[in-house]
Design a protein that fits this description.
With 123 residues, this protein is mostly beta strands. It has one domain: Metal Binding Protein, Guanine Nucleotide Exchange Factor, Chain A (Beta Complex), CATH 2.170.150. Helix content is 6%, strand content 38%. Strands 6-7-8-9-4-3-10 form a seven-stranded mixed β-sheet. A three-stranded antiparallel β-sheet has the order 1-2-5, with no helix packed on it. The longest helix has 7 residues. The site of zinc ion (ZN) has 9 residues, from loops.
């Protein structure tokens, strides 16, 4: 089980299944919303319990992005046609025991850093 929260603590969540697909997303939307890049993993919707006031932003026709309306922490990503929810790895209490599996949307990454951790990359 994992527990997470936003910066101010108004939004908390509990993950009750093993997180899958731990990844870092370098796409333009995650770059802008997070200020750099966004690390997340996902579980089925039934395996994550969210408490508190989440604000949702429809960044595209396919998914929405959830954040704390008070402190702005970018916590969730939810595709409309999938029954999974992605949550921010950075919001989890430590230790997580998790390891990144991949970098995604690397073709869209910022030009001011290199990825040099040896974790597989996909465009
Ligand atoms: Zn907050």
């Amino acid at each position: 089980m994992h527990k997470g929260s936003c910066l101010c603590g108004d939004v908390t969540f509990i993950v009750s299944a093993p997180p899958e697909g731990a990844s870092v997303c370098h796409c333009g939307q995650c770059r802008r919303q997070s200020g750099h890049l966004w690390a997340s993993a996902y579980v089925s919707e039934e395996a994550i319990e969210v408490q508190g006031p989440v604000a949702w932003y429809e960044a595209s026709a396919m998914a929405r992005r959830g954040f704390c309306p008070r402190c702005g922490s970018f916590l969730f990503w939810k595709a409309h046609d999938e029954n999974t929810m992605s949550f921010a790895l950075g919001a989890l209490d430590l230790p997580t025991g998790l390891k990144l599996e991949k970098h995604i949307f690397v073709a869209d990454k910022g030009d001011y850093y290199d990825i040099a951790d040896g974790v597989p990359q996909t465009d």
